[in-house]
Batch of 3 targets.
Target 1
Amino acid sequence: EEEEEEEEEADEDALNALWDAIGMGKIAEDAQWLKMMYHNAKRKRLEPKGKLAVSIQIVPWAEVEARPVGNAQDDPNTNPFLPPPVGRMSFSFNPLSILKELIGPETVICIICICCCVMCLFALMFLGQYYVTAYTMIQSF
């Protein structure tokens, strides 16, 4: 019975981690959900566009000076701690880094190895022609 409870807790923790990863996890106790609305001018009505979890704390000036915080995720990143965004792609002008983001680093390494092997085969093919020509010329003397 204890094993079943531990397994259920592990399943619940995994599910909560998944919800947190996609930004749909539990919110802080002092936070509230705000409905985001869009005014559709064609239909002349408000349409729901999602929800935003908001938490606001009003603190005395002495506490503000005692515990400074940085902008966004800059140091010091405390009170509240802002974790790095999850699931975002990093943009780069390097095509290999974009490829790595799209298909994963292991697949990129396999593709690079295959390209290197193909280039080595082409080099051997072209250099082999010169080798055969030089060998034939040496044998004719």
Note: The two ends are 90 Å apart (CA to CA).
Target 2
Amino acid sequence: MFALVVSALFIVESWSLSATLSTSFAKPPKVDLRPKPIVYVYDHCPFCVRVRLALGLKNVEHDIRFMANDDVDLPTSLVGKKIAPIFEVSGREPFAESLDIVRYVDNDPRFGPTGLFKEMSDRSDLKAWQ
């Protein structure tokens, strides 16, 4: 199940097969920012799992705040609409969209080694569409 989730979302560059997951991946050193980044999530949201998985693979300590499904006020006050996940880190306004959060965390050296994740596709037509 874990390998399926990882392969569906992102591939770590050194992984070629899910069977080599445990031998090919060395967990980076713990990243302990103060204040800790906060991730606002719904417990049933697959996009929230994507962010939590990326933070876990990068070994970033963070706080999880579970939102009720009918909570409109909190996400709206943070990013202007009812959406999850929402990432809040010092020095930046809170923002949403799981892929944007994962890219931000993977490209910022404050969160450990950069370039750990790569996109599943190199298709230029998809990139142009985004």
Note: The CA atoms of residues 14 and 25 lie 7 Å apart.
Target 3
Amino acid sequence: DFRTPVGTLVLQGPIGGQTFRCDVGRPCRISGLDGIGLRRGDSFRPLAQCGMSGKGAPVAYAGDEKGTDFDWGMSAAHLEPKAYRLCWCRPWVTEKSPPVFLLPNATPTTNTTTTTATSTREMEDGNGSNTS
């Protein structure tokens, strides 16, 4: 059984398990998001489930260099009062930008993981479920 290194996988994004609150009919802003490699321009959408269609869901972009502050203003004020998943996305910068993979609700435990052709990486979402 031979293993061949295929590269390095860098996991970036918000740390799972964080909770934020917004009130119906009022401006919505979150700050102090905890994560790895966050930056200005990252975005969040409140959705019932990440990876589903977000048609009509408001988008907020990180307005600070650290990527920790998001302001929907009044664009989220119309949402039905219930729990939503905040689904994170990194926009493409150029055609030569490396691909960014979304692992909704995954909690990265380290910034870098070396992977091999025969290894698997298991992630646990904020609910304790395996995402691999």
Note: The CA atoms of residues 29 and 71 lie 4 Å apart.
